């Protein structure tokens, strides 16, 4: 019974995330699904998000602020606006630094490279022009 309840909550968390492009935080997801699951706790949301990341069904984006979550698992990078904090997909292929380093560096095996692009998004640039 309990396992079924947890998997339904996990499904709800995943489908909520699949419908969003804005890479929400755990808090945003919690607020978003509380309408359908009034008894869900923030802790349960965190636990299920960690499990989904472990299962490779979603991705976690770690940056300066709170962790963000992404249902898009295909390889891509993220742009984080320094002004408004929005996180956007950059679907332009960037050469994998892991391969490059493993080719020429022999003091260990690199498994992962985390990379985010930082700058000012076009919406923030436009609003600066208007004022
Ligand atoms: Zn911005
Ligand atoms: Mn993304």
Structural summary, described in words:
This protein folds into two domains: 1-72, Orthogonal Bundle (Arc Repressor Mutant, subunit A), CATH 1.10.10.10; 74-131, Ferric-uptake regulator, C-terminal dimerisarion domain (Dna Ligase, domain 1, 2-Layer Sandwich), CATH 3.30.1490. 42% of the residues lie in helices and 15% in strands. The chain is built from five helices and five strands, in the order αααββββαβα. It has helices at residues 2-18, 26-33, 42-54, 97-104, 122-130; strands at 59-61, 68-70, 77-81, 87-90, 116-119. It binds zinc ion (ZN) and manganese (II) ion. Zinc ion is lined by residues 81, 83-84, 86, 121, 123-124. The site of zinc ion (ZN) has 7 residues, from helix 5.
Name of the CATH class of the largest domain: Mainly Alpha
Say which CATH homologous superfamily of the largest domain is assigned.
Answer: Winged helix-like DNA-binding domain superfamily/Winged helix DNA-binding domain
* Estimated helix fraction: 40-55%
Number of helices: 5
Bound molecules: zinc ion, manganese (II) ion
Strand element count: 5
Secondary-structure element string: HHHEEEEHEH
